[in-house]
Specification:
391 residues, alpha+beta
C-alpha cells in the first residue's frame, strides 16, 4: 500500500499534542490511520489507532519532554503505508500562578504591580513575577512597617515563587509634645541647653527655645532630643527630676510622643526675703555696688536674670568691673540710669531682639575670649589684605 500525505502538530493544552494530516490525494482503500510516536527521533514506541479521523489529540504526555510523531494509513487487510513525514513537539510545562494576599492594619493604601488596596485584597501573579509594593499612610497616620513576606519600612520587593501574604501596618501619627512642670517649695526655672556654639549664637538672637517657670509646653514637628537644665533661684536648691528624667544632672529626653518632666525645687533654710530684688545691689546704703545683683537691660532683653547669657554679664561685672574704681563708677552709673531704659526694652519685642543682637559680641567675648581674639585677628588680617590689594 502506497499513499502520500502530510502530518502537522499544532498547539494544545499542557501535557498534550494535537496532530492533523491531509488524506491521500488519490482514491485508495484506506480504512484507517495509526499514530506512531516516541521520545527519540526515528524511534516510535507507542501506537494509537485513530480510525478514519484525520486529526487527534494525544494526552497524558510528560511536561517538558519532546515527542516525535509519524502517521501511517492501513487498508482492510491491515497493511500499513510507509511513514509520513516526522513532526516533533515540546510539551510545555504548565504555567504556575500564585496568590499575593495584602492585609492593611490602620488607615492607608498599598499600591504596586497590578494592585491598589485600601483594605485587604489579593491578586494572582504568574510564577516568577517580580513585584514592588509601596505603602502610603492616610492623613494623620504613619507607616509603621511591613510584616509577613516583607519587613522594614522601605518598598516591599517580592518574587512570586509561592503564595505569599504581606501586611502593611499604619499607626496614628503621634505629636511630639514636651510638658515641663515645676514642683516643690522652692523657686527656679527650666531651660533647654544649646549643644553647640553655633546653636547658642542663634539662640541669643531669638527667644529661648524652652524657658519655663511653673509650667510650659513645647510642641515639635518631629521626634527631637532635648537637653534640659534646672536653675534654682537664690534661696532655693534643685532636688532632682521626676517623670521622663531622674537624678539632679542635666535631663536629656527623646520627645517622640507626649512626654512629661517635672523639676523639683526646695527652699533653702536661709532663703532671703521674698521681697528682695535680684536687680538691686547688696550694700546696706546702696552707695556702693557689690556682686550678686542683676543686670537691668540684659534681664529685660533675655526675660530672666537667671538666663545663662545674663549670668555671663553678671560674672563679668563681679570679677572685672567691681574689682577697680573706674569699674565701680561705671556700675554705679549703670544702676542709676538703666532701669527706665530696661522698662522700655521689656515692653517691645523688636527692642529685645535688637538688644540681644547688640549684646552678642560682648557676651561671647566674655565667655570665649580666646575664640573672639582669634576671630578678631582673622578679621583684621582680612581687612589688611583687602586694603593692600586695593592700594
Amino acid at each position: 500500500m502506497v499513499v502520500s500525505f502530510f502530518l502537522s502538530a499544532t498547539n494544545s493544552f499542557a501535557g498534550s499534542a494535537t496532530l492533523a494530516w491531509d488524506p491521500p490525494y488519490i482514491s485508495t482503500d484506506v480504512t484507517g490511520y495509526k499514530i506512531h510516536y516516541g521520545t527519540a527521533s526515528g524511534t516510535y514506541s507507542r501506537v494509537i489507532d485513530v480510525g478514519k479521523s484525520t486529526s487527534v489529540t494525544i494526552s497524558s504526555l510528560i511536561d517538558g519532554q519532546t515527542y516525535y510523531f509519524i502517521v501511517t494509513a492501513y487498508n482492510a487487510l491491515g497493511v500499513e503505508s510507509p511513514y509520513s513525514n516526522e513532526v516533533s513537539k515540546l510539551i510545555p510545562s504548565p504555567v504556575s500562578s500564585y496568590t499575593l494576599l495584602t492585609n492593611i492594619s490602620g488607615n492607608g493604601r498599598v499600591t504596586g504591580t497590578n494592585i491598589s488596596c485600601g483594605t485587604a485584597c489579593s491578586y494572582l501573579y504568574v510564577s516568577g513575577t517580580k513585584i514592588s509594593l509601596l505603602a502610603t499612610p492616610a492623613t494623620g497616620y504613619n507607616f509603621a512597617g511591613w510584616s509577613g513576606a516583607c519587613t522594614g519600612t522601605s518598598a516591599c520587593q517580592l518574587t512570586m515563587d509561592a503564595a505569599k501574604t504581606v501586611t502593611a501596618t499604619f499607626t496614628v501619627a503621634k505629636t511630639p509634645v514636651l510638658t515641663i512642670t515645676k514642683a516643690g517649695t522652692g523657686k527656679g526655672r527650666v531651660k533647654s541647653k544649646k549643644t553647640s556654639l553655633v546653636a547658642a549664637a542663634f539662640a541669643i538672637l531669638s527667644d529661648p527655645d524652652i524657658d519655663c517657670g511653673d509650667t510650659c509646653v513645647k510642641e515639635y514637628e518631629s521626634e527631637a532630643t532635648v537637653t534640659l537644665v534646672a536653675e534654682p533661684e537664690s534661696g532655693s536648691s534643685f532636688a532632682g527630676w521626676s517623670g521622663a528624667c531622674s537624678g539632679t544632672g542635666e535631663c536629656t529626653v527623646i520627645v517622640s510622643d507626649v512626654t512629661s518632666v517635672t523639676a523639683n525645687f526646695v527652699a533653702a533654710a536661709s532663703a532671703p526675703s521674698s521681697g528682695s530684688d535680684p536687680n538691686v545691689g547688696n550694700s546696706a546704703d546702696g552707695s556702693d555696688i557689690v556682686g550678686g545683683g542683676g543686670c537691668f537691660i540684659a534681664t529685660a532683653a533675655f526675660g530672666s536674670y537667671l538666663e545663662p547669657h545674663v549670668k555671663v554679664l553678671r560674672n563679668f561685672r563681679d570679677t572685672c568691673l567691681l574689682t577697680n574704681s573706674p569699674g565701680k563708677a561705671f556700675v554705679k552709673f549703670y544702676y542709676r540710669h538703666s532701669p527706665p531704659i530696661a522698662d522700655v526694652i521689656r515692653k517691645h519685642a523688636s527692642l529685645r531682639y535688637a538688644t540681644r543682637l547688640a549684646l552678642f559680641p560682648l557676651i561671647y567675648g566674655f565667655e570665649y575670649p580666646y575664640l573672639m581674639a582669634v576671630l578678631l585677628i582673622i578679621a583684621a588680617g582680612i581687612g589688611l589684605a583687602y586694603k593692600r590689594r586695593k592700594i
